[in-house]
Amino acid sequence: MALRKILIWPDPRLKKKSLPVTAFDDELKQLAEDMLETMYASDGVGLAAPQVGVLKRLLTIDIFAGKDQRPADAEPLIVINPEFVEKSGTIVWDEGCLSVPGETAEVKRAGLVRVRYQDLTGAFHEIEAAELLAVALQHENDHLDGVLFVDRIGKLKRDVIRRKMLKLKEELADAAEAVA
Questions:
Q1: 33 neighbors 27 (Cβ within 8 angstroms)
Q2: Domain that holds residue 125
Q3: pLDDT at residue 114, as a whole number
Q4: Could you give the number of structural domains in the chain?
Q5: What is the DSSP string of 24-69?
Q6: Pick the catalytic residue: 83, 140, 170, 177?
Q7: From CA 45, how far away is CA 161, in angstroms rounded?
Q8: For this structure, is 140 an active site residue?
Q9: Residue 96, Cβ neighbours under 10 Å: how many?
């Protein structure tokens, strides 16, 4: 397993639409393992392949990441080619994103979702989710369509966050240059 570099918004690669996964092979399994390791190392609960520069419809989620209490049957989700079968209700959640580090904003989403997806073998599954898991599935799925949570908030707040991210990217580039 290896840590992957997470793209920081407004990187234009984050705005591209991902392609369906058609090959369920060792390369896909390695990508999923790397994404989980990267997500955990970054203290995230979800990560989509486009965030690590791979335009495939793959996402990882673990709503118990970093928690002291984990249900015995709680495994991280690896969701491939997700398709929302049903969305209902409304929930407002203060969302953050590994591609927009240190920033959060309230986003309105469906409160209950049902998602059909494939696993690493290509087998189909369906999951019903509410609360944080429903939010995480919608948030990460947005990444597969080139949408970030900042696209779902007001322009003023988005512009403030954009300036902060540009400054952060500049600081990271300067730090990398100083090390080299």
A1: no
A2: 12-179
A3: 98
A4: 1
A5: -SHHHHHHHHHHHHHHHHTT-SEEEGGGGT--BSEEEE-TTTT-S-
A6: 140
A7: 21
A8: yes
A9: 17
